[in-house]
Amino acid sequence: MSEQRNLAQAQDEHARLRPHAPALIDGQLRLSHAQLASAIARTAGHLRALRISTGSLVGVALADHATHVVIMLALARIGAVMLPLDHRWTAGERERVALHFGAALVLTEPAMPVAGLPHVEVDAAWTRAVEAAAPDPYIAPGGDAPLLVSLSSGTTGRPKGPRITHDHFLARFRTHWMNLGFVDSDCFACATPLYFGGGRTFVWSTLYLGGKVVLTPPPWEPPDLLTVLEREQVSTLFLVPTQLRRLLAEQADTAALKALRLLFSSGAPLNAQERRDIRERLNPRFCEYYASTEGGGVTLLTAPDIDEHPDSVGRAVHAVQVQVVDAEHRPLPAGQVGRLRYRSPGCASGFYRDDEASNESFHEGWFYPGDLAHLDEQGFLTLAGRAKDMIIRSGVNIYPEEVETVLRSHPEVRDAAVLGMPHPETGEELLACVVLSGTVSAQSLRLWCEQHLAPYKVPRQFALLEALPLNSSGKVLKLALKEQVSQLAPDRLFRL
Fold it and tell me: Quick one: pLDDT at residue 268?
């Protein structure tokens, strides 16, 4: 049963219990818990003066700074619903998403247009107004009240956003405490965008406990990140795979990384060798946290699990149930690939204002993320790709992630993605898009695949690229990749 607890009220409690303890650091700005609570209460008062109230949907298109964190918690405090918008989007993308979800107001950086929508710039005038505002004592009920609508699909077509409540977030926080070991003495470095669900959630979780958050947003150079980790005595760090690969390629002193109590990753899969390299070279306590926008944390692969279950994303975390089912929603035996589904107290129950999409992805309390997977006898989950990405070649199902894993294991391949391309005889053929770290040929890559895959899984086409198009969480944007491939010069595309 819900306690009706508002996510933001913990900041007032910390202001009383640990007023002088550091809470939020952004460059030269250092806020104690008392100062953070005051800033949140004054910002809440300013928002209410702008006629933002309980239930108002507010777009937040801000860069990664302390004011962004304060605004998120102030919106939560007054019961408004946040709609995160990436400040790097074009004006058209921001407008399209904000209009689709019905935002009453959009908060933007200075000189950031949002045509056709009421918006307020968070600028010097905003800062003066907040500083002049009296702290607002009002705290709206939390519990099952909506907290945010977090985009879980692209900005084109029909955007989808799950309705996440205060209770959902508190349930997700419990997995951070019980499975990741977050404690009130932690110092968390936020090195990913606040727009990205991982960075935003781990910041809130740390502040909710009364810990310290250091903002060190991208883009950053590895030596600069390492300096921040050492100077602030950071204990916990979350990075997406692309960032971890940069650190692996950097020949810098990794003592600050090895000193972390916890280094963890989510957002996109790592291959087995990458996991071992990160554990051995960066941090011996590294773990991988499989999570989603809709469901929060799902499974955890700990450092000791990496050797025995190198291709898995781990086992279910606290209070999460995971199943692999067939087309009729019946659980499948261990080892058999099917549709992944899960449920937990932290999982959304539907998409905001989108019954059709909700009916497609939610069934009898379970969320279906669209992933294909299999479970082993011990409950370890292994992903097999996206159901929509599955390639059918001559009637045989091929899971792109399996082929991608083999390609990434080649010592001269930095990254890889596999597409299904139309073919008049087989229906679809495999196109391997590869980013090289060496000079290996397409023919050699095909031979490598032949050594590790059944013949029908071996790509017949290879595209050699400088980089793969990725979203902010490091996932490959396959529609953009297909467009990129269509414009390749002939000497970068090989049919074997």
Answer: 73
Can you tell me the distance from the alpha carbon of 352 to that of 358, in angstroms, rounded to the nearest whole number? 8
Residues 288, 270 contacting (CB under 8 angstroms)? yes
Burial of 409 (0-12, 13-18, 19+ CB in 10 A): middle
Question: DSSP 3-state assignment of 207?
Answer: helix
Quote the pTM value.
Answer: 0.82
**219 preceded by cis ω (within 30°)?**
yes
455 CB-contact burial (10 Å; exposed 0-12 / middle 13-18 / buried 19+): exposed
The structural domains of the chain, with segments of one domain joined by +, span: 7-375, 390-495
Among left, alpha and beta (phi > 0; psi -120 to 50; other), residue 314 is left
**Per-residue tokens: 103:** 């935002």
Tokens of 322: 């995971």
Q: Which residues contact 156 (CB under 8 A, 6 or more apart)?
A: 96
For residues 75 and 47, is the Cβ–Cβ distance under 8 A?
yes
Return all residues near 443 (Cβ < 8 A) that are at least 6 apart.
494, 496
By CB atoms closer than 10 A (0-12, 13-18, 19+), residue 311 is middle
pLDDT in tens, 6-30: 999 999 999 999 999 999 999 999 9
- CA distances from residue 318 to 297, 346, 368, 495 in whole angstroms, order as listed: 9, 10, 19, 47
Tokens read off for 23: 């809470």
In words, the CATH class of domain 7-375 is alpha beta
Please answer whether residues 176 and 169 qualify as being in contact, where contact means their C-beta atoms are separated by less than 8 angstroms: no
Judge contact between 401 and 385, C-beta under 8 A.
Answer: yes
Question: CA-to-CA distance for 228 and 117, rounded, in angstroms?
Answer: 38
Residues 6 or more apart in contact with residue 404 via CB below 8 angstroms: 416, 417, 418
DSSP state of 349: S
* Whole-number Å distance between alpha carbons of 24 and 213: 5
- At 226 the three-state DSSP class reads helix
Residue range 390-495 in CATH 3.40.50.920: no
Element (H, E) at 445: helix 442-452
Bridge partner residues of 199 (DSSP): none
- Which residues sit opposite 147 in a β-bridge? none
Distance CA 242, CA 265 (A): 10
Query: Which tens digits make up the pLDDT trace of 449-473?
Result: 999 887 888 999 999 999 999 876 6
Find the DSSP H helices in 453-488: 478-486
Spatial separation of the C-alpha atoms in residues 36 and 22, rounded to whole Å: 9
Strand, helix or coil at 222?
helix
Q: 453, 169, 424, 409: which is closest to 270 by C-alpha?
A: 409
